[in-house]
Amino acid sequence: MNPWLIELSAAAAFSGAVVSYAAVDPHAQLFGATVRYTAAPQKLAITFDDGPNPAITPRLLDLLDRYDAKATFFLVGRFVQECPALTTEISARGHVLGNHTQAHPNLLWLSPREVRSQLQRCHDALREATGASATYFRPPFGLRNPWVVSTARELGMQTVMWTLLPGDWQDKPLERLTARMQPVATNARDAAQRQSGDILCLHDGGHRQLNSDRTRTLAALEYWFPLWRDAGLEFVTIGEAANNPAN
Fold first, then answer.
1. pTM for the whole thing?
2. Of 27, 37, 127, 239, which residue is most buried, by most CB within 10 angstroms?
């Protein structure tokens, strides 16, 4: 085989791997700076995607109140438009509202114009419901192409990823979800060896429709909240957790 073709194939494979990493890995920064950790090991930022969800979000807000926990909710614009009062209540209870696009598409395959439309429409929905625009954005599925992060920045938002994604949207036993949230406690125990804290990505809704069942998420948090509190963790919003533009 022609050596030049071998080298070309190898280069193409390497380039493809780099692009895949940049698009998918929550720690990748090649397509733009993102918030990936909290600024201190004892600060836990709990985030929720795909709401607001009338079936779960009100119960979740009561649970957060019980533990004096503040969180960040990345909301889908079309659900905000259907549930403006619930959106306002999330904010009124001291939580941060983030942009999770208008309809939760895979942004990886969208053009710059389409990406901007998804972010802008959710931006507008949040402003219409609450009078304020979001300053944080999370891409659906965590997927980015070269213009996602820059578009969010042009709209005045930092892009937020995560350190832990336990998969609470999956139809799996509660015990599995609870076990997959164990690293939060482990990391709290090892705080002296760490310089940053966790961003936990959970879901209070489902992106396909309202009223998705997220009772397992509630139950897992019911189990872990007292243990995290006893471990000395502080439950903070992304705004409180990220002292720098990207961590």
1. 0.91
2. 37
